[in-house]
Amino acid sequence: MLKKYSNPNIQQNQKKENESNTTIKFPDTIPSSLLVEADQNPFIKGYVYPYDNNRIRCGIYYNDILVGFMTPRESSRGWRIGAIYVKQEYSGKSISSIAIKKFLQDKKATPILIDTNNVASQKAFEKAGFSMDQAIYDWDDGSGQYNIWFPNQSPYTI
Q: Which domains does the chain have, with CATH numbers?
């Protein structure tokens, strides 16, 4: 029986390659077809607003191909990443977390709410430097539960 072997050097090179191949453009115009596709995702459905052309969005590119978007908003407390989406065929490359880090690198980030079942967003924000508060809260509409995620070295507490 063959054992699966993972070379750390290859993994590190792939990580660097993914980081250099992932770029963001803010603000950016996102095609409605991608927004409609994203609005089918159960974790962001209803938060995408595919036909609202007044929303400011950030394009996420991989090898110069638009593969997703995020909807950041600035408030008096800093920047918050709203709906974030990367096409399924580009998953597994840490593109979301790389894009989050690149967007926030020179900005003050605010805490965000992530559904307890949204494992993909939890992983992306953790890799981007956020930490989860252990408390669990109920969504106001009764649709589930969420945790608050804080940017590392954040002055915010509950």
A: 12-151 (3.40.630.30)
